[in-house]
Here is the input.
Amino acid sequence: MTKELFQMALNVTEPWFVSDLKFDVESKRLDVYLDFKKGSVFDFFDEEEEQELVGLKAYDTSDKTWKHLNFFEHECYLNVL
Here is the structure.
């Protein structure tokens, strides 16, 4: 239920989903982990070429972390796997 709540609150849509949440009260930190379903395809608008590329597959990925708005008094980070 909690993952689904954060997924709705952050407007995470398919093929993306919240895969994990880690909440550390002592360090006042919330980590939200996002992932996508294996075999998913993505669309991308190439502004330089001014064209939309559709049906792109991810062959490899690298983990990324972004600071998000705080969750009450806790720092919140989005981690994309």
